[in-house]
Amino acid sequence: MIGFVSSASGNVMPLEFQTNGSLQRQSLPHAVSVAGAEMYVSLARLGLGLIQVPRYRVQDDLSRGQLVEVLPNHPPAPSPVYVLYPQSRQLSPRVRVFIDWIAAEFAARLPTAP
């Protein structure tokens, strides 16, 4: 495992899996740990250990065979994505365009339902 250090706690985050509808957390031994997402993925590309990231982040790597999914039948719990903006009487057209664009980008990267 490549450890990913939480900015909130300063500790290495455990891997998460769903088994029979129940969320399991597992900490594994790690020889290296990082606090940055880019380095986390780069080290996995070099073969230094397991990582757990959102699929959209590594979909191209998976498609090219640069990374391989492990335990596909035990995915982590879905992570919500939020768009936050200041409350006002009227939503800016620029903000609306951005929200529509980012929603479409994430939707395009979601795996198809079984």
In short:
The chain is 32% helix and 14% strand.
* CATH-defined architecture of the domain at 2-78: 3-Layer(aba) Sandwich
Count the E strands.
4
Spell out the CATH superfamily of the domain at 2-78: Periplasmic binding protein-like II
Main pleated-sheet profile: 2 strands, parallel
Strand arrangement in the largest pleated sheet: 1-4
Beta-strand portion reads 5-15%
Say what the CATH topology of the domain at 2-78 is: D-Maltodextrin-Binding Protein, domain 2
Kindly state the percentage of residues in helix: 25-40%
Number of helices: 3
Secondary structural class: alpha+beta
Which value, in Å, is the CA radius of gyration?
17 Å
Overall average residue pLDDT: 89
What multimeric state do the chains show?
A: single chain
| Series of secondary-structure elements, N-terminal to C-terminal | EEEEHHH
CATH class of the domain at 2-78: Alpha Beta
Q: Give the low-pLDDT segments.
A: none
Describe the structure.
- This protein is α+β, with helices and mostly antiparallel strands and 114 residues long.
- The protein has a domain at 2-78: D-Maltodextrin-Binding Protein, domain 2.
- The chain contains 3 helices and 4 strands; from the N terminus they run ββββααα.
- The protein has helices at residues 37-45, 55-64, 93-109, and strands at 2-4, 15-19, 22-26, 32-34.
- Strands 1-4 form a two-stranded parallel sheet. Strands 2-3 form a two-stranded antiparallel sheet.
- The protein is globular and about 50 Å long.
- 5% of the residues are buried.
